[in-house]
Each structure stands twice: as structure tokens, then as C-alpha cells.
UniProtKB/TrEMBL annotation:
Residues 86-108 are annotated as: Disordered. Residues 152-272, 275-396 form the Cyclic nucleotide-binding domain. PROSITE patterns: CNMP_BINDING_1, CNMP_BINDING_2, CNMP_BINDING_3. One of its GO terms (molecular function) is cAMP binding. SMART domains: cNMP (SM00100). It comes from Guillardia theta (strain CCMP2712). This is Cyclic nucleotide-binding domain-containing protein. Signal peptide: none annotated. CDD domains: CAP_ED. Gene3D superfamilies: Jelly Rolls.
Length: 398
């Protein structure tokens, strides 16, 4: 652990830096590992303050998500820096990481309360791999299948679905147990593995009215993962039920950690795209924040000639070809090949015209997509170079 002396020196230094408006690059009273830690703590403090300002002003959407991802990423870096400081202070002694407790058999519980098995402490800010509840393969496949059918998980990458599946905890409840009550503040989402649950709301006569039934393989309470809102209905177990649950804190940590990880991956990929070489690190980060990834199978059309174009594409993995329709009964003409780092689709955005050609995936292809609004706002420094490339397209299209 951090010694009281070092903790006191860091606290005093950060207090003084607030007054002076910044952290000196010299930091003479600290060794190299301690300097790294001080700078990270200072940056984390600033990121948290920025996030608090956004939240208090009512900001929503990408700005808040990006700020949250920054905080998560910096927390991970602080943990790594703390390990370096502890290692340099205490030789090669290492503290064993805390592991979740294995979930054992689920005994019958008293009627009237949902009970979950103990997971043990979890360092959610350190790594999403820390939250792993053992499951057999059939259970994992079943949970993943349920999640992919739900709207709030429809855009989640497969690797992140697997991380979410690992984090679900088993719970058992007896028939007539109230799993959630209308109006209560809830923070858990449930998937019914075995059993049946009924959902009720108050009727006009003052009683309860059944609005739907949740059967095996269905979920209930997913809105609690997104925000702290009262439950919209009362859910009661009709039979003994075996459930899987995921709490909001774990869900948000997993999603934000995945967002921070993808942001780093996109930035690394974008650094290798020649057309973006003139962008600063800050500009690249902004482009990475607005990108969305999508997979296309070999032979699948990424864009089609004649359709309206409102997006631009960068190939991250795989290859594609551009073709032009030659007319009824005539084969399409191949125009050019695309591979990793190449881009296409910008012509329709620059000229505000329909797509001039098809682009078809040759092999399984992963593309990063940027929409027209972000294209104009963020890729201004690249527009001149892109405009020069239009002449190349025209030579192929003629």
C-alpha cells in the first residue's frame, strides 16, 4: 500500500497544483514512478471534474460517455502506476489479485426475497475480466442469445457480449416472490433461466392487472441498466425460478471499459491511415470517438451505386472492390481494390451526390464508419487531399 508519508506528499502537491493551475514537469521531490502517479492522479482529478460539470449541466449522449470512458481509462492507469510505486517501495512483493468466489449450488430460499450467491469483492475499475461468474457453455450460449435479441444490446460487439455474459450472477427465488416492485428504484436486470414470472400494474379499480408474462429465455428490468428510474411494473414469480442477474454498476463499467478500449484501438488504427497523417493526436481522438465498426461478409455490398450517401468508410480488416454497373445485361466493371487503411464513400459527401459506384466486400471485412456531420466537422484538414483524389475516381468512372 502507499505509505502515509508518500500519500501526504502527493496530497499536498495536488492541493498546491490546484492553486497554481498545473503540475510541474520536474516534480523534484518524487522518483520516476511517483512522478507518473502524481501526473495521472492530477489528470484523473481534472477528468472527474469535467465529468461532474457535464452531468450537473444536464449534458447527455456522446460527450458524457466519452468523459466517463476517460475517467475509467485513467483509473486503470492509476492502478497500474500504484503497482509500480508499490513494487519500487517493497521490492518484488506482490499482492494477489482478489478473485470472485465461485458460485456453488443454490439451496431453496425463504419465500419473499430474491437471494443471490456471494461473488466476493470485485475490482470493477481495474479490468472487465475481473467479473467472471463460472458457467457451463450451454448457459453462456443461452445468455448471449437472449442479449442479442434485446434492443439495448443490439449494437454491442460480440466480444463485449461475452464479457457481459461472464458477469451475470445466478439467483433463485420461490414461487410468489416479488422480484421487483412498481415504483421501487432498481439497479438489476434479470433473465429467466427456468420458471415463469408475471408482470403487473395497478388497474383502474385499484387492484392489479396482468400486463405480460416472462418465460424462460426472456429478460425483464433492462431499463435499470441504463438509468436510475423507478420500476415500471411489479414482477412476481409464478413458479420457483432460476434467474440470472446483472447490476447497473457492473454493466456500466463493462460498457465504459469496452468504449475506452475500442477508442484506443481506433486511435491506433487511424494513426496508420495516410490520409489522416496531418491530424493532431487530439483530432484523431475525436474521430475515434464518433466512429462505429461494422462487419460485412464476403460478397456483401457495403455501398450500392445510386443510393444516397451519408457515410464514409475506412477498412480496418479485410478487403473490398469498387465496381460500376455497366447497364442491363452487361457485367459490372471493376474499378479498384481496397485493403486495410484505405477509405471510400467520401465522394458522395464532398459532392452531395448519390453513390457513383458499388463497394463489395471480397473477404470478411471490418469497416469503421463516420457520418456526414462528423466528416465535415472533424476531417476538414483532410478535405483538400480528398478533393485531389476525386480526379482519380473520375478517371475510373469515365
Amino acid at each position: 500500500m502507499l505509505g502515509f508519508n508518500l500519500f501526504g506528499r502527493i496530497s499536498k502537491f495536488l492541493f498546491d497544483s490546484r492553486a497554481s493551475g498545473g503540475v510541474s514537469s520536474h516534480l523534484p521531490e518524487f522518483n520516476e514512478h511517483e512522478k507518473d502517479l502524481v501526473k495521472l492522479l492530477h489528470n484523473l482529478e481534472r477528468s472527474r471534474s469535467h465529468l461532474q460539470r457535464l452531468e450537473s449541466s444536464g449534458s447527455k449522449g456522446d460527450m458524457v460517455i466519452t468523459a466517463q470512458a476517460d475517467v475509467i481509462s485513467l483509473q486503470q492507469e492509476v492502478i497500474a502506476a500504484l503497482q509500480h510505486v508499490n513494487g519500487s517501495s517493497h521490492g518484488h512483493e506482490k499482492e494477489e489479485p482478489v478473485q470472485p468466489t465461485n458460485v456453488s449450488a443454490h439451496p431453496r430460499r425463504r419465500r419473499g426475497a430474491v437471494s443471490s450467491e456471494s461473488m466476493g469483492p470485485v475490482l470493477v475499475s481495474a479490468s472487465i475480466s475481473k467479473v467472471v461468474i463460472p458457467k457451463v457453455e450451454q448457459e453462456k450460449q443461452k445468455l448471449a442469445s437472449v442479449l442479442k435479441e434485446m434492443v439495448i444490446f443490439s449494437d454491442v460487439h460480440d466480444e463485449d457480449i461475452h464479457a457481459l455474459v461472464d458477469a451475470f450472477a445466478p439467483e433463485w427465488c420461490a414461487a410468489e416472490t416479488v422480484i421487483m416492485r412498481k415504483g421501487d428504484m432498481g439497479d438489476k436486470f434479470y433473465i429467466v433461466d427456468k420458471g415463469v414470472c408475471d408482470c403487473f400494474v395497478a388497474s383502474a379499480e385499484g387492484g392489479s392487472m396482468l400486463i405480460c408474462t416472462v418465460t424462460e429465455g426472456k429478460g425483464v428490468g433492462e431499463l435499470a441498466l441504463l438509468y436510475n428510474a423507478p420500476r415500471a411494473a411489479t414482477v412476481v414469480a409464478r413458479t420457483d425460478c432460476y434467474l440470472w442477474s446483472l447490476d447497473r454498476g457492473t454493466f456500466q463499467c463493462l460498457v465504459l471499459s469496452a468504449t475506452a478500449r475500442r477508442r484506443r484501438q481506433y486511435k491506433e488504427f487511424l494513426r496508420g491511415v495516410p490520409i489522416l497523417s496531418n491530424l493532431t493526436a487530439e483530432e484523431l481522438a475525436k474521430v475515434a470517438d464518433v466512429m462505429e465498426a461494422k462487419w460485412f461478409e464476403g460478397g456483401e455490398y457495403i455501398i450500392e451505386q445510386g443510393e444516397d450517401g451519408d457515410t464514409m468508410f475506412f477498412i480496418e480488416e479485410g478487403s473490398a472492390i469498387a465496381t460500376k454497373n455497366a447497364g442491363p445485361g452487361r457485367p459490372s466493371k471493376k474499378l479498384m481494390d481496397f485493403s486495410k487503411g484505405d477509405y471510400f464513400g467520401e465522394l458522395a459527401l464532398i459532392r452531395n451526390e448519390p453513390r457513383a459506384a458499388n463497394v463489395i466486400a471480397v473477404s470478411r471485412c471490418k469497416v469503421c464508419i463516420i457520418d456526414k456531420q462528423a466528416f465535415v466537422r472533424l476531417l476538414g484538414p483532410c478535405l483538400e487531399i480528398m478533393s485531389r483524389r476525386i480526379h482519380l475516381y473520375e478517371a475510373f468512372l469515365d
